[in-house]
């Protein structure tokens, strides 16, 4: 199981060139862009994925490293990079293309190690952000209302004794719990973001950034900062081929992001499988990114009815081993 992954990490060494999105603002003539945050990965369930730095101090903002690009293997001090580490990346901009040119290890500094989870229960203060943005081609579908989603997540009494919440608690052996709306610690909100994400391609980071920014505007920064995890419910561009996505990491320490696609309503919202699998992805741990990422690509969420998502036990086994 291990050696093919090692091989893929070795292969990653040959893919060091990084690019930044054009959304990373550049003043003409400026040739350096510095970003910092927690190294985060999303997996597209097709063997590919994208990296970003998650800046939690800035309203949970993702700074993408570039479509399909991987970070270097190690930082300037020789420290292996893995999801969950807090780091700075200095990216030299090619003034002709406006894109990030080759990033060497010397451009990367790990400032804090990946967060090692405590053995205590995790109680997520969930912010579910429903996008209703007709002007951006992303009108909310009929089922994507606060009341409908609250009862899908938490059961008819919104107390977590029903819905997906009770499944999450059970499937995680009680380790992961979503605080119910009745606690006042979890909130569902419908927002109309600015149209800052591309609609002809599938840029999960840009969609999350737009939706989270709009939620922060609507709720106020103080309230917004109390939530530990963010779920985006949205009619994503047709270029997106997934029912759901999640960041690898951001589970225990907070900052985890989940994306749920309303275009695939029955698959995504018809059972607890997709929401739970994505939520549990946030808890997959960080033992060098090979061992973390091995859980992302091969699992299926097409499972039937009552079974816990197949990723659950693996994720929690890793969790247990880390203690
Ligand atoms: C839209 O963008 C403007 C200008 O940056 C900003 O002031 C406003 O808060 C944004 N609105 C939302 C909903 O994000
Ligand atoms: C209600 C429910 O989902 N119960 C399940 C809890 O988890 C155990 C073991 O994973 C299952 O056997 C139960 O059916």
From TrEMBL:
Keywords assigned: Signal
Pfam families from the UniProt entry: Peptidase_M11
UniProt key word Signal: yes
Signal sequence, start to end: 1-25
Peptidase M11 gametolysin domain residues: 125-320
Name of the protein in its database record: Peptidase M11 gametolysin domain-containing protein
């Amino acid at each position: 199981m291990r050696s093919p992954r090692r091989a893929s990490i070795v292969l990653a060494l040959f893919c060091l060139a990084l690019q930044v999105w054009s959304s990373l603002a550049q003043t003409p003539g400026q040739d350096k862009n510095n970003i910092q945050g927690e190294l985060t990965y999303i997996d597209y369930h097709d063997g590919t994925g994208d990296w970003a730095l998650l800046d939690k101090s800035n309203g949970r903002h993702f700074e993408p490293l570039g479509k399909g690009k991987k970070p270097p293997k190690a930082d300037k001090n020789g420290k292996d990079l893995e999801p969950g580490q807090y780091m700075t990346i200095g990216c030299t901009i090619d003034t002709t293309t406006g894109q990030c040119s080759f990033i060497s290890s010397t451009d990367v500094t790990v400032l804090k190690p990946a967060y090692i989870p405590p053995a205590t229960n995790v109680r997520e203060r969930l912010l579910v952000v429903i996008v209703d943005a007709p002007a951006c081609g992303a009108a909310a579908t009929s089922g994507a209302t606060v009341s409908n989603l609250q009862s899908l997540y938490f059961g008819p009494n919104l107390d977590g004794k029903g819905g997906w919440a009770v499944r999450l608690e059970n499937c995680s052996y009680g380790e992961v719990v979503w605080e119910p709306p009745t606690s006042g610690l979890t909130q569902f909100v419908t927002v109309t973001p600015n149209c800052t994400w591309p609609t002809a391609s599938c840029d999960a980071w840009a969609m999350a950034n737009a939706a989270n920014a709009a939620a922060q505007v609507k709720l106020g920064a103080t309230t917004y900062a109390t939530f530990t995890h963010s779920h985006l419910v949205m009619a994503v561009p047709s270029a997106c081929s997934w029912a759901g996505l999640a960041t690898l990491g951001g589970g225990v320490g907070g900052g985890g992001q989940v994306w749920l696609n309303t275009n695939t309503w029955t698959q995504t919202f018809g059972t607890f499988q997709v929401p739970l699998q994505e939520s549990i992805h946030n808890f997959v741990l960080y033992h060098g990114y090979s061992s973390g990422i091995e859980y992302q690509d091969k699992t299926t969420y097409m499972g039937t009815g009552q079974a816990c998502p197949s990723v659950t036990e693996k994720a929690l086994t890793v969790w247990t081993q880390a203690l």
